[in-house]
TrEMBL record:
GO terms for biological process: DNA biosynthetic process. Pfam families: Retrotran_gag_2. It comes from Parthenolecanium corni. InterPro entries: DNA/RNA_pol_sf. It comes from the Eukaryota. Residues 184-219 are annotated as: Disordered. Residues 184-202, 209-219 have a biased composition (Basic and acidic residues). PANTHER family: GAG-POL-RELATED RETROTRANSPOSON, INTEGRASE CATALYTIC DOMAIN-CONTAINING PROTEIN. This is Retrovirus-related Pol polyprotein from transposon TNT 1-94.
Amino acid sequence: MAQLEELKTVKLTGNENYQIWKFQIGIILKSMKNGDLLNTEKPADAAKLRDWTHVENSAQRIIVTSVSEKVLSLLFACDSSKTMLEKLDAVYGHKSDASLHTLQQKFYGATYNKEDGIGGHISKLEHLVSQMKNLGETVSEGMLVAKILNTLPPEFSHFHSAWDSTPKGEQTSSNLTARLLIEEERLKNKNPEQKSENKEENTALINQNEKDHPPNLRNVKDEVPYREAVGSLMFLAVISRPDISYAVSRVSQYLENPKTIHWNAVKKILKYLQGTVEYGLFYQPEGNLEGYSDADFAGDTQDRKSTSGYVFQFCGTAISWASRKQRLVVLSTTEAEFVAASEASREAIWLRNLFLDLTGEEQTIPLYVDNKSTICVLKNEITSKRSKHYDIRYYYVKDLIKEKIIAVMYVNTKNQRADIFTKGLNRDNFVRLRNNLGLTKI
């Protein structure tokens, strides 16, 4: 009996942990010697009364020592373990909608706390899931896994691509926890000079309009190696780092007359690269060739020209990409997207011929565009009054569609992977699209 009384139990504090407490106390009371007497009325026989009283007193002692002071006040009027359990069940036994709503808010609103670490963070989420399940809520394994992934700190952003490549049957919360703990330990053991690399700088750079930057316009052409730095960045942006293409495209427009603001932007790119030096393009074993094209209408505040961007991916990873200012001023978003699609189609022709040489098979390359008006113009053989002014050189793409060399398809703006090549993005969207390009920590 002493061993049972010394068991450490979860203290009952209210609705949120009543089901766990009830299950625990039920097991303990059933394990007591002569515990079955608790379900009987008070006997009249003296010998049986002695055993019943001993068991009853022990049960009451176990109950009152396993509840908080607030809950204990509810039991003052109870004269038996049975009435105590009935009282607690009447107060906390019902499924509280309010309590469930609170747990749901805590779960879906949970964020990562650096002090908890990965293990503590996941434990908190698992505990909330357990509490919700006790109140009848259905929380699937996939929901828990998704919540864990969506609340990881920035230094784990590379982990998403690695997890996506994991076989579906192995995408369990226990496997995820084990892998994250290993990755956390790996990051902790990195060399001191590499620790700063975990803090990724958002490559907003001059992604935001220049009016957002301090008005420091002193010419620095003869003071800093601006041209050399931009040249090195352009090489990297073309070869293996599509994530900096837009930023490098912007700073390269000021080679002849760079100001302090432009040099600061170059330094931000370098700082971002320092924090992501381990990133590279990771190719999956299987996949198809597909392209995405996008445009930022009149994004340049100086000459009101638009920016075109495209990316072609094979096996889920970028193999060809570009970010460049359009040569002419267009009059609408539709026209800007039309020009971007035409530029992307020329790259599609080259890639199609390359794949034809490698595989001997001709294929239609899907080109995803997020503007439905542009798709209508591209597929419509009749020129409307709204599009008759479009430069004739860009009508080449219509022939490619007609000949089924490319197939223009619609994609939601959120899933437009070429968006990263046309404009400045906030951190969340930038990291998400960077991951979609197949750029991950290697």
